[in-house]
Amino acid sequence: MTDTDKVEATKKRLADEKAAREKKQAEQREAMANAKPTPTQEENDLAAEGEHLDEHEPDGSPPDPNAPPPGQPSPHHQTRVTKPSPQPAQRGDYSTRTAAPAPAGKHDTAGAKHE
């Protein structure tokens, strides 16, 4: 394969990629032509006034193929139920501090004179 053949093959490949890219972009623009922003300005205004909206206006986009049917949780959602284990009032595996004051000693400065 000569250098001229490589250049021609590269030019053809780049032209094919450009045509495919332009076709895909045109399809995406066409799909988005009828879509509107979500939430709409009206929904934003209502929310700013304190209204709660459960349902939103459809935005014109196709349904999400990965979304679970309405009213059903996601198959990846798990709820874990935990119950506390019965424990005695005082755990016996460690000692706690006593309420008795520390003995007066070397570090006691309550009655010491400062020079």
TrEMBL record:
Basic and acidic residues bias located where?
1-30, 49-59, 105-115
Q: Where is this region: Disordered?
A: 1-115
Comp. bias intervals (Pro residues): 60-73
Q: What is this protein called?
A: Uncharacterized protein
